[in-house]
Amino acid sequence: MEVIAGIVLQNLNSFAQEEFGIIWNLKDDVQRMKSTVSAIKAVLQDAEAKTNNLQVSNWLEELKDVLYDADDFLEHLSTKAFERKMVGGNRILREVQIFFSRSNQIVYGLKLGHEMKAIRDRLDDIAKNKSTLQLTEYPVETPIAYRGQRQTYSFVSKDEVIGREEEKKLLKSYLLHNNASVTDSVSVVPIVGIGGLGKTTLAQLVYNDNAVQRYFKQTMWVCVSDEFDIKKIAKMIIGNDKNSEIEQVQQDLRVKIQGKKYLLVLDDVWNEDRELWLKLKSLLMEGGKGSIIIVTTRSRTVAKIMGTQSPLFLKGLDLERSWKLFSRVAFDGGKEPDDRELLAMGRDIVKKCSGVPLAIRTIGSLLYSRNLGLSDWRNFREIEFSKIDQEKDKIFSILKLSYDHLPSFLKKCFAYCSLLPKGYVFHKKTLIQLWVAEGFIQPSNDNRCEEDVGHEYFMNLLSMSLFQYVTTDDFGDISTCKMHDLIHDLAQIVVGKEYVTVEENKENFGNGARYLSSSSTLLHFEESPSSSNKLRTFIVHGQQPNRRINLDESHFRFFRFLLSLKCLRVLTLCGLDIVTIPKGIKELRHLRYLDLSRNQFLVNLPPDITSLHNLQALKLSQCLRLKELPSQMSKTLRHLELNDCLNLMCMPFGLGRLTNLQTLTHFILDRNRSGDIRELSGLNSLREKLEIRWLDSLRENAAVVESAKVLREKQHLRELELRWWHENVRKFHPYWEDPFAVAETHLNENEIEKENSWLEDEKILQGLQPHYSIKRLVIDGYCGKSLPNWIGNLSELLSLQISNCNGLKSLPEGICKLVSLKNLCIYHCPLLEKRCERINGEDWPKISHIPKVFVSAISPSQLKYIN
C-alpha cells in the first residue's frame, strides 16, 4: 500500500507546467491532494499491522482502490500533456491536433477537472475516517542496504548441502550400482518429506554430480508441481515447446530414450491418480537397462503409487547441523560471535525451526540482512518468535516473518512473483524490467537508473532466501532463479485480491484484480467483467492450440477486451501464434512493457505502436517471420529484444534517437543504406550484448565506420558479436525466407569481386573498435588477412571467438597482452588452422597464458545442430 501511495506522491511532485495547463486551478488541487496522501501514508504501516481488525481492513481496501484510481488518472493526465506538447513538433499527429483544438480543450479540461475533484473528495473522506481508527504515525521507511560483500548465490548452494551428506551418498550409490529387474528396465526412487526439507536440493546434488552425469547417457529434469499433464511433462522431457499433438510427442519421447540408460528427475509431484501415472510410465519404460526415475514429493501416497524401490524419507536436521546451517547464514563469514547471550538466543530460535533447512536459512538470512544488535535479537526472540508457538503451521509462520520484515517496496516486488506458476524460472533482467514498468522502483538519490536500483532490490530478496536455485552466466553474474514452492505459496497468500492467476475452466476474476496472469486460451477472456478495465498487468503464458490467431478477425471479442484495458502497464502475449496486432493498440497509452515473443507468424507491427509514448520494453525474440519494425519509435524505449528474428532485414529509421536504449540485442544493417551504422553512435547507454549483422554491406563505404566511431563510448557493453555474411548462415537457419535470394546474389558477387574486399573488411573492423572493458568478442565471416591492433587493448576480455574467416592468416601480436583471456576459439579459419601445427613457431603469438584454446574446422553453428 505504501508503494502505491508513494507513486501517487511522486507523480504529484513531478507535475510540470504542461499538466497544469490542461485543467484550470489544477495547482491548488495538486497541493491539497499531496497533503492528504502524505497524511494517510504516515499511518499505513500501523494500519497494515492491524489488518485483523475488520474496520481497518475495510478502510485499507477502500484506500487501495482510490490510490490506484488516482495513479491511473495522474498517469493519463501526464500522457495527454506529453501528446499536447508534441503537436508543436515536426511530427504532427492529426488526431491529437483535432483533440486539442480550443473548443475541445475547454470541454476536456472541465471533464478532467471533475475527475480530479471526485478523486480528491474520496481521499478527503478516507483521511477523515483514519482518525476514528486510532492509527499511529510512523517515520518514513528507508531502503535496507544489500550486503554486497556476500556472494549470495554461492553461499546458498553451499548451505543447502549441510546435513545431507549421508543421504547423497546413499542415493548416488544406488544410481551407480543399480541392478534393475529383468522385467523392469527402469526403476523409480521416491524422495519423500515435508516442504522445505531439501528434497529438490538433494536431487540436484546427485543429478549434477560428475560421476552421475558420466554414468547416464541421458539426464533430464522436469518440475511437475500441481498439474500432472502427461503431454506437458513429455514435452518438457524431450525439450519441445512446439504445439505438437500427443501422438507426435510420445513418438518423439520414445525416440529420445529408446535403448538409452537415462536419469529422469520428476520434481515436486502431487498427483495421486494411479491411472495418470501408469499412462506416463508406459512412455518411459523403453529406456535402457539401469535407467532411473527420481521422484520428489511430499505425499506418501504418491511414493506408493510411483515407486518401484523403497522411498528415501527425508528427516529434519539434528540440532548440531541446524546450528551449523544457521551460523553460516546469520553471522558474517559463518563465524559464531563471542557474545554468549546472543548465541543462546540464536539456539532458541533454531530449535523452533524443527530442523527444516528452508526455515533455518530464511530466518538466519533475515537476521543477517537486518544487521541487528543484541537488544534487537532479544526483542525478535521474545516478541516475533513468541507468536510462532501459537500457530498451527510453524514453518510457514517462520517464512512469513521474512515477508513481514520487508520494506513495502520489496513486498510489492515479491508479491508480483506470485503471478507466475510454481517452478517458473525467473530471468533476473526480465523481472527487474517488469518491476520498473509497474513503477515499483523508488527513485534513487545517487542518480542510478531504475534498472540498477531494481538489481539491488533483487539482491535483497535473494539475500533473504526468498529466491534460490540460482544460475549464473559466463561472467559469474546471476542470470536466473526460482522460488521454493513454500515461498511461492507465501507470495500467493499475502497478495490479496489484487493479484489473480486464471487457469483453464476457472471462474473469471473479481472486481479487485489489478494484476492478472493466465495459462488458459484467449477465448477465456472474451466475456470478462467490465471491472477488468482496471488491470495493470495482463500476462498470457503457455501454448495456444496449433492455429494462427488474427486478433482483428477470428478473435474479435478478445481484441475488444484487450483494448478496453486502458490502465495496462504490462502486456505479455507469448507463444500464441498471433498473426496481426490490432491497430487500436495505440489506445493502451499507459503501456510500458510489451512482450510478443515466440509469435512465429507475426510479420509486421502496426505503425500505431509508435504512438505508445510510455513504452519502455518491446520484446520480439523468436518472431521468426518478422520482417521490419516501425520507424520513429518512442524515445522512452529502453529495451528492444530481437533474438532469432531471422527475417528482419534492417533497423527502423530513427533508431539513433533512442538514447535511453539499454538493450539492443541485434543491429541489422540495410544493404541499401550503408550509412545506417551511424545510428549506433549515440546509443551509449547500451548494456550486456550487441550483435551487428551484415557488415559486408559496408564495404562500399568503409570510411563511414571509421569516422562514426560507433562503439568506443559504449562502456556498459559486455558482449559484442560482429558478423559478415557467409555460407553457413543459409545452411543452418531453416526459417530464413526472403534473405536467401539477396544473400545468394551477394555471395556470387563476392566470388567475382575485385581482390580488395579484404582491405575494406580490415577498414570496417578497425572502425568498430569497442570500449576496452568488453568481456566477450565474436568475429564471424570476416574476410581480412589480419586483425586490428586494438584487440590487444581489450584488457578485460575473457573470451575471443573467431569463425568463418577464410582469409585470416595470423592473430595480432597484442593478444599476448590479454592477461584476462580465458577462452580462445577458432572455427573454420583454414589458414589459421594450418598454423596450429606450428603453434610454437615464431609466426604464432605466444598464447600459453590462455587456459582454453579451441581450434576446429567445424563452425559453432554446425556444432549446435550436430549435437
TrEMBL record:
GO terms for molecular function: ATP binding. Keywords: ATP-binding, Leucine-rich repeat, Nucleotide-binding, Plant defense, Repeat. The keyword Hydrolase does not apply. Residues 677-829 form the R13L1/DRL21-like LRR repeat region domain. Signal peptide: none annotated. Residues 420-491 form the Disease resistance protein winged helix domain. GO terms for biological process: defense response; response to other organism. Residues 183-332 form the NB-ARC domain. It comes from the Eukaryota. Coiled coil: none annotated. Residues 6-86 form the Disease resistance N-terminal domain. InterPro entries: Apaf_helical, LRR_dom_sf, LRR_R13L1-DRL21, NB-ARC, P-loop_NTPase, RX-like_CC, Rx_N, WH-like_DNA-bd_sf. Gene3D superfamilies: 1.20.5.4130, Helical domain of apoptotic protease-activating factors, P-loop containing nucleotide triphosphate hydrolases, Ribonuclease Inhibitor, Winged helix-like DNA-binding domain superfamily/Winged helix DNA-binding domain. PANTHER family: DISEASE RESISTANCE PROTEIN RGA3 (PTHR36766:SF38), PLANT BROAD-SPECTRUM MILDEW RESISTANCE PROTEIN RPW8 (PTHR36766). This is Disease resistance protein RGA3. It comes from Flemingia macrophylla.
